[in-house]
Amino acid sequence: MSTFSIGVDLGGTNLRIAAFTQEWERLKAASMPTRVQAGPSAVLDDMCSAIRELAAEFAQKRTFAGVGVGCPGPLELPSGRVLTPPNLPGFEGLELKTELERRLHCPVVVECDANAAALAECHAGAGKALGFQSLCMLTLGTGVGSGIILNGHVWHGFSGMGGEAGHVPVYHDGLLCGCGSRGCLEQYASATAIARAGKKLVLAGSQNGSATVTARSLAEAALAGDPEAQKIYDEVGKALGIGLASLVSTLNLPLYVVGGGVAAAWDLFSPAMFAALEADSYIYRLSKPASAAVPEHGKTNVVPAKLGPDSGLLGAAMLPFFE
Amino acid sequence: MSTFSIGVDLGGTNLRIAAFTQEWERLKAASMPTRVQAGPSAVLDDMCSAIRELAAEFAQKRTFAGVGVGCPGPLELPSGRVLTPPNLPGFEGLELKTELERRLHCPVVVECDANAAALAECHAGAGKALGFQSLCMLTLGTGVGSGIILNGHVWHGFSGMGGEAGHVPVYHDGLLCGCGSRGCLEQYASATAIARAGKKLVLAGSQNGSATVTARSLAEAALAGDPEAQKIYDEVGKALGIGLASLVSTLNLPLYVVGGGVAAAWDLFSPAMFAALEADSYIYRLSKPASAAVPEHGKTNVVPAKLGPDSGLLGAAMLPFFE
Question: ipTM of this predicted complex?
Fold first, then answer.
């Protein structure tokens, strides 16, 4: 009998739940707004209803492996306790794993959402396509998430906070981050940071005024030849290159994957990223592939993610198999 | 029958060889200058003679586990090929492991010297004393070496260059490093960097002029109350704190060990180090022990090394058991 699992992507805006086969084929999905205002208990109710429905539908013909949940960090792992998630106000201290297991009576694995996305890229995305079982993935979205996969498994660190590369300091005494530190990668390479830089441009009058400057609208402007918009993406690439230099020097992994919404602008930021990485890491210089665009085994490769925005949901469904 | 191994510490100045029991008791040691000028073959001859002599002396009563060699990086591992070591000119491309095995007819494990020191701190130093099997060690000497131990074993990365934290960029566009990059930790926290900063003081006339300003003489001046010398150690601590912030955010290890000759000045640089680490890493802020000086399980601990300058030699002898 084939096996299935259920993945949950608990975001600050949307709650998405889907059943997958162990070959990572999606069987069925459900999506709803995350009722953050209604509090953790209401959100858990929504989540559990959808999980029960999916489990009931597929459990007759398949073995149910369990539930995996990707949740915004920081989390305490493996206990699955939510710490202080900026996008889930009111969820501080929630015993997410314990609460779900109590309600669902099945094994639940909770993981940081960026780690879940990295797991999916390893087993079904860039890692699988290129033949690597170890990688570090940066997810450029509202913030900069990151996850480290070693030999096919999430590297948690001793308390579940491994791979928080979005908070590696890239510019000492730089911009103040939501985490309270200064100069974190997240303040230069997230969609939020890009939109903020774009709004400054509008205020300075060099962009056609629009109240809704986003990372995407700036990417479109840069692609259309706007040099100021391109400069913003050059800065994104430079910060990413400095952050990657730290990671490459410390971890010496064969693969670094850049994903999240901002990664769609790969062609705009990757030249500056590779230039900064090459300038700042002698290990990269010693181990870079002949062409940055053509990954090689035995070299340090940096590539865009292969999976789209659903990688976190798929990675969550992989958790029961890889923890 | 008890077991013994032979460790080799191949330095740019001294070549040290010693036999140890598996309980890490030193049986006998030999030391000689490293004849770098005479070339790799002469150095290998010296090394092999000393190894054969020690092996012959102890092999009658004990089982011989093999030879471990700590060598300045960068190395290609596990092949044991020397790449471009700044302190061993002429050794570029040397197949150290293959050459030694050909001459000695016994298993040889080659490892980066800083990784060997980290292994010793794990199994016989700070890690053992505090009950941790995973740590990252920074060795502050002529350069800044570093090694990562995960669950008791060296983390090599995919090509033997894992844990090169001495080359994490701490100040973007900072001082030029011997590796060719700018702003590497090594340029701020090595004995060389400290001596260089001290020489500037002498030139500026604020230190009693001496041609031989060293990290140690500056530490003595700082201990005697010289505020300018203390400022230099404050800068060492600050750079270490920024570098540690990167490591803590990425690795989330329970223990970071600071060793090497400069670590003797722990009281001079550690206050600035903890201040910068706390400012630059929210993971450290979330997970620091109640008092930085009192390590706690379940927290992020940063401590001085417990073993002295022989940790690299002992760690080399551990290699046959832990690879």
Answer: 0.92
